[in-house]
């Protein structure tokens, strides 16, 4: 059905569209200040009331041309969208405080932009400060492949002060220049397609979403599908909170008339027919439910490995985190030099410190694996990695990391080896115990059910109904570490109570992670 709706493309009448810009950089380097400064000087121009409404994006006008800024600065938001398949940003503005210089999140931002293949313009901010040293910044940036035009390179760098509002016009002109090079185009004559950049439930107004129109023109009364919802546009508000009848490509609008709150990154698609819209939404909801049931992950590395094996994928991206810079650099250099004829290995980010959520998002969006050397994932990052199906491998010996990757590349490290069943138990009887929840009186039919399991899954009629963690494991009244084949025990699963007699509970471990942590 979706294919039918997407068809009918071609026969396009492409016209230039404004660039969409995201601001990134280290904390406190002035991302928010710069966004505000540009908005104040440009949006408020000629408008008595100034800015009344705040939505997730705004558009400014420069010499009669428009530029749209996404109002969620930072590479995490950027990459989170990208990991959902949404490409909304055309140009990244990298803010570097000229007094502070290149910092860890500056480097992260550079690598996130590079991994996405989005061109980058440097705004050297806080140039008003006496300690500002733009040449030092240029020098530091050149180490990351960003060579200033002033030094014969091709990276545009503009000195600005968000505080004193200087250099902003030059920055905007450079954005327009870059966007001309990119030849950004869209067809305003067709039905709109866009991406949700922000959505929330508002008292009195119901669900509202800021949608960035990417192609076509969105109009009041249009029928749409977004995520698992369908509906009709009741009203459109522009970035100043003013009602508008339509929005053309690269223009953000607030959409009213949604039956629910979609997620940032969801595609917003206009379709001709209300019934078709409803069917697509239902179909998606159905798919989502069955995916949830099967415990599927969003990004499948297994898939990538399979494609590498069959020869249709040619590149493995890697994120490296290590305890000290020396190690991360040595590892990155060694990994890229590995003799793997069939596949190119590319280190898309290497840095110092624990594995963070931002690293996991980057890996998910780029289908990369993460290698930690003498570091561990932060707890939130570990959860996210599990949820997103990102492969995290931890090492303490460089040689081991290298031989592992080499082996993986030669097809020896079959990803199915990663996970190993520890044992299975059959549920015989179910008890509901106050406070403790549902406990499954079970009989271990093979292997062992162990507290050391990374996870358990509940299988009903050969279908995985739930995957989660072991809650409690008891023999009679005692908590035990493991129960072997042929014994009875009581098992509970964290956050899951829908257990029935006849179900099978399987405990499993993930060798690479469990072995190294
Ligand atoms: P963000 O964390 O990157 O969003 O940074 P903010 O925009 O919150 O700015 C951090 C601090 O730097 C704030 O105290 C700002 O007032 C200050 N700041 C931002 N831009 C400038 C600037 O151009 N000059 C000076 N002197 N201070 C600035």
Fold blueprint:
Blueprint: H1 2-6, E1 15-16, E2 20-25, H2 31-43, E3 57-62, E4 65-70, H3 75-83, E5 91-97, H4 104-116, E6 120-125, H5 134-142, E7 157-159, H6 168-182, E8 185-186, E9 193-202, E10 206-215, E11 218-219, E12 223-226, E13 229-232, E14 235-237, E15 243-244, E16 246-247, E17 252-256, E18 267-271, H7 274-293, H8 301-310, E19 315-322, H9 325-336, E20 344-352, H10 357-366, E21 368-373, H11 379-388, E22 392-395, H12 398-409, E23 419-433, E24 437-450, E25 455-460, E26 463-468, E27 470-475, E28 478-479, E29 482-484, E30 488-493, E31 504-510, H13 511-516
Parallel strand pairs: 2-4, 2-5, 5-6, 6-7, 19-20, 19-21, 21-22
Antiparallel strand pairs: 1-8, 3-4, 9-10, 9-18, 10-17, 11-16, 12-13, 12-18, 14-15, 14-17, 23-24, 23-31, 24-29, 24-30, 25-26, 25-31, 27-28, 27-30
Helix pairs in contact: 3-4, 3-10, 9-12, 10-11
Guanosine-5'-diphosphate is lined by residues 25, 27-33, 125-126, 128-129, 161-163.
Kindly describe this structure.
This protein has about 525 residues and is of the alpha+beta class. It contains 13 helices and 31 strands. The strands form 6 sheets. Strands 23, 24, 25, 26, 27, 28, 29, 30 and 31 form a 9-stranded antiparallel β-sheet that branches. Strand 25 (about 455-460) and strand 26 form a beta hairpin. Helix 3 packs parallel to helix 4 and helix 3 (about 75-85) packs parallel to helix 10 (about 355-365). It is globular. The two termini are about 45 Å apart. Residues about 45-50, about 295-300, about 410-415 and about 510-515 have low confidence and may be disordered. Bound molecules: guanosine-5'-diphosphate. Guanosine-5'-diphosphate binds near residues 27 and 33.
